[in-house]
Design brief:
Elements: H1 3-20, H2 32-49, H3 52-68, H4 72-87, H5 90-93, H6 96-115, H7 119-132, H8 138-154, H9 161-174, H10 178-194, H11 198-214, H12 218-227, H13 238-251, H14 255-264, H15 273-280, E1 298-299, E2 311-312, H16 317-320
Antiparallel strand pairs: 1-2
Length: 321
């Protein structure tokens, strides 16, 4: 069939679809089911032909008729497919205006999937909306990803959450918003407990301490380390010991010990790569609010896993006499 013949077929299907939902003197009931089928057939032809403008109109029409006919899954799917077609058009997707429109389509699809009781697809659409959101609107992107996580957690779809957590954490990390990532990591640790994934909980705890330290605020890093002492997976783990070694080196203002810990303790090798790179760039000498270093004798290699930091015995000169 020639290109022109296919275009004519698509146009005829669009006309037929509109006829199904147009009242006349002899037709009082509207048939949105049949209309949606015709619009979808036309949309597929236009998409195959590369006619983005007509394809967009057809997919939107199909979605609208499916929604009215209470075929919510197919309504959301039509919007998702429309967004996918537009995303493949370099000229459209390359502009900020096009990216905003794509994001809106994914959000519309997410709302329809939510109404249809499909939280996992709702979350997927929100994450896609976040990814396509212009870089200048990173806060909007983060908000959409939080909505995605909320949808999954609220509907007990916890097994879908880890990828969503990671994506949002990476968004904050790449934007330098380290403190914004901390509450997301805390949520992740709670979910890992529900999923019975202690190793993931331990890694998340170490990642959180690294990001806190990367803010340059010792008080924040030390406080969050203490809050994690009974955290699922982190307590009594190698990751807890690694976090202690990192904070102890900072407290002693020992850059050499800090780098030795990051390079030689295995837990640092298995966390999110972007956060591992941040750990390698930490400098004890640039931290603020660090208390005066103590002269101490550290007992035991794993004391941190039993209640916080290693026991320290301060030696008074009079006691040595």
């Amino acid at each position: 069939m020639s290109f022109k013949a296919k275009e004519d077929e698509a146009a005829a299907l669009m006309k037929s679809g509109k006829k199904h939902i147009t009242k006349s003197l002899t037709k009082w009931s509207l048939d949105h089911d049949s209309a949606a089928m015709d619009f979808e057939k036309a949309a597929k032809i236009y998409t195959h032909l590369g006619n983005v403008k007509m394809g967009k109109d057809a997919w939107l029409a199909a979605s609208a008729s499916h929604e009215i006919a209470k075929n919510l899954f197919f309504s959301g799917k039509a919007l998702e497919t429309c967004a996918g077609m537009l995303k493949d058009d370099a000229a459209f997707a390359g502009s900020e205006e096009g990216q905003s429109e794509l994001s809106d389509l994914y959000i519309r699809a997410s709302r329809i999937f939510a109404l249809d009781g499909k939280p996992e697809r709702q979350a997927d659409m929100l994450q896609r909306a976040a990814k396509i959101t212009p870089a200048s609107k990173s806060k909007e992107a983060a908000a959409k990803m939080v909505d995605a996580i909320d949808a999954l957690e609220d509907n007990d779809k916890h097994h879908y959450c880890p990828d969503a957590y990671r994506a949002l954490i990476l968004l904050h990390v790449r934007n330098g918003s380290y403190t914004e990532a901390v509450p997301i990591i805390k949520r992740a640790i709670k979910t890992y407990e529900k999923l019975q994934q202690p190793a993931s909980g331990a890694k998340a705890g170490l990642e959180m301490i690294i990001l806190c330290a990367a803010t340059g605020d010792w008080v924040l890093a030390d406080r969050e380390f203490r809050t994690l002492q009974d955290a699922y997976g982190f307590a009594h783990s190698q990751e807890q010991n690694a976090a202690f070694s990192l904070l102890d080196a900072i407290e002693q203002r020992d850059d050499e010990a800090l780098q030795h810990a990051v390079k030689n303790e295995s837990p640092f090798q298995f966390i999110i790569p972007e956060i591992a790179r941040i750990a390698k760039k930490l400098k004890a000498s640039t931290m603020s609010n660090v208390p005066p270093p103590k002269k101490s004798v550290i007992h035991g290699a794993t004391t941190a896993a039993t209640g916080g930091k290693h026991d320290e015995v301060e030696e008074d000169e009079e006691d040595l006499r």
